[in-house]
Amino acid sequence: MTAITAITADIAQAGTFPLGGRKVKRLGYGAMQLAGPGVFGPPKDRAAAVAVLRAAVAAGVDHIDTSDFYGPHVTNQIIREALHPYPDGLVIVTKVGATRGADASWNPAFSAADLTRAVHDNLRNLGVDALDVVNLRLMFDVHGPAEGSIEAPLTVLADLQRQGLIRRIGLSNATPRQVAGGRRITDIVCVQNQYNLAHRGDDAFIDDLAAAGIAYVPFFPLGGFSPLQSDTLSAVAAGLGATPMQVALAWLLRRSPNILLIPGTSSLGHLRENLAAATLALPDEAMAALDRIGAA
Q: Is 70 a catalytic residue?
């Protein structure tokens, strides 16, 4: 219990930022890796997945990212098993806008029927009456943000919000133009795009969102399916007595105050390593060296 208590004190050092009407700690947890290989099917060790979730919350994590198309249904069912009834202050953020094929493919699901079904699936599998935050995952290009009208699907979610099934709405894989258009339909409380030390396309976008008080939640903060690898990153980490992944997370925390992190893992050891990044202070010269990775 001593180690968990220490981590609780540590992650508070990362500060907080508003999300869905509540202030959450900037270091959260992403549940995607709790599903099977390729985010499909059940995990090899369900008890271990439950243990990681409980350890994350015991360590002070109050922001969990998930989706009912992880598995599908697997991660939400594990979250419910591990944490329901949910502690006060825990914000669970989910995503809609895609379905999984029998071959594990990721397929767009933007119709009113698709989105309504997805919201009800999330409600049922999480065991809640209303979803804290629902991100509309845009699928105009599965490899990254691409322009396309989001008026129709976002209007469906806004209607479900008026019915009381959704508290707040965000966007995932979105462009600045889509966020601006979305804000004319409903409040957008967060944007979830790919961003990390080496993938820096959203630099100006992050700054604009910070000025508007909107959270930015980078997915694949550690590189995702292709983990970050850099001689500079390794050298900075060695000089600070930290791991490269801790340095990559600490860089994101310092990059902008509106960045909320959701590193995922199915390992208790990696969970503790990730959360310890909250205490890692990066000197200016380290930040400058790390900034050059994305510019290379």
A: yes
